[in-house]
Structure formats: structure tokens, C-alpha cells
Amino acid sequence: MTSPRDAGLKLLREHALIAGNPVTGASRIAVDDPATGDVIGHVPDLGAAETERAITAAADAFPDWSRSDPHARAQILRDWAALVDENTDGLAALMALENGKPFAEAKGEVAYANGFLKWFAGEAERLLGETQDSPLGHLILTFRQAVGPCALITPWNFPAAMLTRKLGPAFAAGCTAVVKPASQTPFTAIALAELADRAGLPKGVLNVVTGDAATIGGVLTASPLIRKLSFTGSTPVGRKLAEQCAPTLKRVSMELGGAAPLIVFTDADLEHAAEETVKGKFRNAGQTCVCPNRVYVEALVAAEYARVLAEKVAALTVGGAFEDGVKVGPLIEDKALDKVEAHLAALKKDGAKVLTGGGRHERGGRFFQPTVTLGGDDALFREEETFGPLVPVFPFESEDEVVAKANDSPFGLASYLFTRDLDRAMRIGRRIEAGMCGVNTGLISTPVAPFGGVKQSGYGREGSVHGIDEYVDVKAVTLALK
Ligand code: NAP
Q1: Which residues touch 57 (CB under 8 Å, ≥6 apart)?
Q2: Using CA atoms, how far apart are residues 299 and 395, in angstroms rounded to an integer?
Q3: Is the pLDDT confidence value at 181 over 90?
Q4: At residue 25, does pLDDT exceed 90?
Q5: Ligand 1 near 50 CB (within 6 A)
Q6: Smallest Cα–Cα separation from 380: which of 454, 257, 294, 258?
Q7: Which atom of ligand 1 is nearest to 255's Cα?
Q8: Exposed/middle/buried for residue 458 (C-beta within 10 Å: 0-12, 13-18, 19+)
Q9: Which residue has a Cα nearest atom 14 of ligand 1?
Q10: Most buried in the list 249, 267, 392, 444, measured by CB within 10 Å?
């Protein structure tokens, strides 16, 4: 029987894809397994010339694809989704190898990622327009038409889902794409592209380029042929790309960083709140844009909540992706550990108590102990995402105080609230400055919910009935009727 690891390696391809053809380069980028540091393969280090070729391929494929029957596009998305389902173990193992997340969790990501292909297959069939009588006596018809060839740039933390969340709506709308996956996790994107090809996606509709991010990003954003950029990644890079898109006035969507507050009131079910905090925080070892970055607990119950949370966190097994029962994997790179360490040191300096964990893991390498602290100053955690397995708990006294603290951040992506008081939930749910708010749950991401942020967390929405709007222009055709 093939092991999951071998199933993953079977899908590993060491080339980029332009116009349906594999492309290799003179120089290559090594991709390693964060659990061991061992190189698992290489991808080509492509530059400006290959990026221009990929743009030309996407532009050449656009007229036929954008005018194709949306039901046919829906069928290709469904056939692609069926192949993704069939290859779940292989894709999950490949992702576990290049990203380090536990294999079981990676399987969950494959299902989540595939949810976007399935959902947007349906959206292709619902590209509805409107009719309206004009005051000039005409009839106005609206059409939702594909924006054009798109540049899609994705991060390493969800190598499959961040891509299908863009490709699903792009293809449903009739857009073509040039994808630049993160250099640390390019293999999942390339494997997904190969499955799309097998599902019958016409050549040139999906192109994947790997290589130096600034060079590729510079060419993609400067090109007048690219009509839209969708970026998921850090706020500084997003800001730079938005600037680069200004001269050609591209449509832009930005899914950027967060510093999510999680608020627990005295009337909450503390056991449940702690359980959901673990679910929300420790996915991908705390390296998610929506994971709680700062936990505020009403002073009366803060010590009790923190005790329950610490007990649960201490029970999490840390290890390699394919080891039994592992819940928390390694961090993506060495400098990620430095950041978690610095955040922990700042808390300790401000008088926080470490309740569990408290440093690098005894396994060494890129493993960090799942850590809970109580007390200290929250200022740093409003400004910076830790992106690691550290939960700082801060006591608060009043609703107004905690909402002010939650909102006193440049970011506004996810937020969480635990209370049994429905009035309070609705009040705070509306007051909180975030694109998403989970009430009594730590899990808010699904293909059917709108995902996105406000403030420095970006703009635009992915998933849900809104996701396709990012990839269509509304065209008005006015008919003069006799
Ligand atoms: P990052 O450094 O911004 O990289 C993201 C992507 O951008 C990668 O493909 C990277 O390529 C590319 N890139 C880097 N510099 C570029 C440039 N000058 N021009 C064009 N592309 C460039 O972010 P990350 O560290 O990989 O990802 C973590 C961040 O993403 C966190 O801030 C997290 O909160 C955010 N995130 C947000 C969401 C959301 O939906 N809001 C979801 C997931 C993650 P290379 O890999 O080749 O450098």
C-alpha cells in the first residue's frame, strides 16, 4: 500500500506551467520540509521573460474562455473538484511536506479548498443580470462580464485554499490567470494546476510561475494586459503591490494580515470558550491570518479561563506531519521562531505569567512549545501578529474598555466573542472593527461565508455570493425599443 508521504511525492512536479507546458529554468529554488529542514524538491527560478510569456498565454486564452458557456465552465470546475477529492491524500501529504502542517489537518484544508471549486461551479451558473426600464424610455440590460486576465499571488500558510478561493471565482466568471505561489510551498499549486489540466481546463487559462517574488510581481503589476490583482499575504507587501497597480488602474483585492481579538465575558461557557480558542489558535501552529492574536477575558473569570485553556494547550501533541496524534507542527522558517520568542519575552518583561510552554520545543529545529500566558501589556499584540503558537490572555474590566482595545489596532480581519447574552453579542458584533466576527465559535472560515478584512487587513471579499463580484465588471446595454 502507498504511504501518504509517497502519495504526496507522486504529485510533486519540479516545473512551472505556461500555456499548458511544463517550464524549467537554469537556476532553481530549493523547497524544504519545515519539520526536518531536508530539501524535498526544487522549482524553477523564473524571471521577467517567463512572466511576460505567462501573461501572453493568459491574455491569448481569455477571449475564448470568457465567452465560453458558463455551464461548461461549471462542469470543468466540478470535474476538477472530483479529481481533487480523488487525490485528497496525495495533495494533503504534499502540503504537509512543504508546509509542515499535520497530515490530518492538511486533509481538512484540501476539503476546505475544494469547497471553493464546488461553490463557484454553482456561481458560474448564477451569473445573473438585471433588466430595468430607463426614464429615457429605453430598456437597460446588465451583464456581469469577466474582468480579464488576473494575477493571483498566494502565501504559504494555506497553499491550497488561498489559491482555490481565487481560482474558483476567477474561472467561474471567465477570467484567466497567472499564479505566483509562495516560494516555500509551490508544489501544492503546481499539483492543483496539473489536476485542472486533467479536468479539461483549456491551455493557457491557468499559468503558474515560480521565482523571485519582486521581479514576477513587478512584471505582473506593470502589465496592461493583467486587469486584476488578487493578493493574499502580508500588509507591507500588499501595500506595495497596490501602489504598483495604480498606474494601470487594475482592479485589486487584498487579503492581508490580522491581529484578531478574542473576547470572553463572565457569562460565557468557559470550557467551550477555551476549546474554541484552541481550535482557532493552533491550526497551522498559530500561523493563520484569522487566529486569535490577543485574548481578553473579563477579570472575574480570567484566571479560571486561562487555567482551563492552559490545560488543553499542554495536552496538544507537537511533532512531524505524519506522526500519530500530532496537532501542532513546526513553524515555516527559523525567523518565525525568533518572532514568537520576542513576543513572549515582551510579555514576560511586562509581568505576564507563563502557564504552559514558554520556549522552543525540546525537539529543536522549527518547533515551538504551545504557550499560554496571563497578564502583561497587550499593546504589541494589537500592532503585530505573532504568527505562532502563543496565546496571551489579558484581563479586562468593562465592555466599553474591551471594545476600545479590540478596535485600537491597525488591523481588522477576524474577531471572536464568547457570551451567552444575545443583546451583547449583537451590540459588539456590530461595533467591532473587523470583517468577520465569530460568536461562541473559533471557526469562521467556510466557502459560503464572506471572508475579508477592513483597515490594514485589506479590502474585497472571497468566498460566498460576494466572491465572484471581485472578478466581474457590470456591463450595461441600453436598448431603444419602438
Ligand atoms: P508575504 O511575505 O507577503 O508573501 C505572500 C506572497 O507574496 C508570496 O507568494 C510571496 O512570494 C509574495 N511576495 C513577497 N514579496 C513580493 C513582492 N515584492 N511582489 C510580489 N509578490 C511578493 O506573506 P507571507 O509571510 O507568505 O504570508 C503570511 C501573511 O499572509 C500574514 O500576514 C497573514 O496574516 C497573511 N494572510 C492573510 C490571509 C487573508 O485572507 N487575509 C490569509 C492567509 C495569510 P515569496 O514566497 O516568493 O516571497
Answers
A1: 18, 19, 178, 203, 204, 207
A2: 5
A3: yes
A4: no
A5: no
A6: 294
A7: 41
A8: buried
A9: 213
A10: 392
Q: What is the pLDDT of residues 147-177, one digit of tens each?
A: 999 999 999 999 999 999 999 999 999 999 9
CA dihedral sign, ordered 246, 248, 250, 254: negative
Closest CA to 392 of 417, 375, 410: 375
Percentage helix, strand, coil for the chain under 3-state DSSP, each rounded to 5: 40, 20, 35
Q: Provide the whole-model pTM.
A: 0.98
Q: Ligand 1, atom 22: nearest CA belongs to which residue?
A: 213
> Alpha-carbon distance 123 to 450, whole Å?
14
Residue 454 cell numbers, joined: 477592513
Instruction: Tell me the three-class secondary structure of 235-263, residue by residue.
Output: HHHHHHHHHHHCCCCCEEEEECCCCCEEE
- Looking from the CA of residue 211, the nearest atom of ligand 1 is 47
Best CA proximity match to 175, nearest among 54, 68, 20, 248: 68
DSSP state of 136: T
Residue-wise pLDDT for 261-305, tens only, equals: 999 999 999 999 999 999 999 999 999 999 999 999 999 999 999
Q: List, for residues 29-61, the tens digit of each pLDDT value.
A: 999 999 999 999 999 999 999 999 999 999 999
Q: Which grid cell sits at 155?
A: 502565501
Question: Within 100-185, where are the H helices?
Answer: 103-124, 161-173
The Cα–Cα gap between 231 and 220 comes to 12
354: helix, coil or strand? Answer: strand
Instruction: Assess whether the C-beta atom of 220 lies below 6 angstroms from ligand 1.
Output: no
Mean pLDDT for the stretch of residues 459-474: 98
Q: 381, 294 in Cβ contact below 8 A?
A: yes
CA of 78 to the centre of ligand 1 (A): 28
**Is ligand 1 within 6 A of the CB of residue 283?**
no
3-state SS record for 430-452: HHCCCCEEEECCCCCCCCCCCEC
Is 289 considered catalytic here?
yes
Contact between 223 and 55 (Cβ < 8 Å): yes
